[in-house]
Automatic annotation (TrEMBL):
Residues 1-70 form the Tyr recombinase domain. This is Phage integrase family protein. GO terms for biological process: DNA integration; DNA recombination. GO terms for molecular function: DNA binding. InterPro entries: DNA_brk_join_enz (IPR011010), Integrase-like_cat_sf (IPR013762), Integrase_catalytic (IPR002104). It holds the Pfam family Phage_integrase.
C-alpha cells in the first residue's frame, strides 16, 4: 500500500506533503461533508460502527459546516 502513495506523491509532485491513507480518508470525509453529504451516509462509507466515530469530522470542520447550514438550510427562508 505504501508504494501506491509513494508513486502518487511523485506523480502529483507533492514533495513537501505527508501523503498517507489516513490523509486521503480525512480529505474524503471533509470534502464529502462540505459538498452537502450527510454524516449518516459518511458513517457507512467510512465503515464506522458507531456514529460517535464519524462525528469527529463535524467538530473538525464545524465552522464550515455551520456556514453551509446557515447558507442552505431551507428553514432559514421561512423565518424559523
Amino acid at each position: 500500500m505504501k508504494g501506491i502513495f509513494k508513486r502518487l506523491k511523485t506523480t502529483l509532485n507533492f514533495t513537501d506533503v505527508c501523503l498517507s491513507a489516513h490523509t486521503f480518508r480525512h480529505t474524503f470525509a471533509h470534502r464529502f461533508l462540505m459538498s452537502g453529504g450527510d454524516v449518516f451516509t459518511l458513517q457507512k462509507l467510512l465503515r464506522h460502527s458507531q456514529l460517535k466515530m464519524t462525528e469527529k469530522y463535524l467538530v473538525l470542520w464545524g465552522n464550515a459546516l455551520k456556514e453551509n447550514n446557515d447558507k442552505f438550510n431551507p428553514l432559514n427562508s421561512i423565518g424559523i
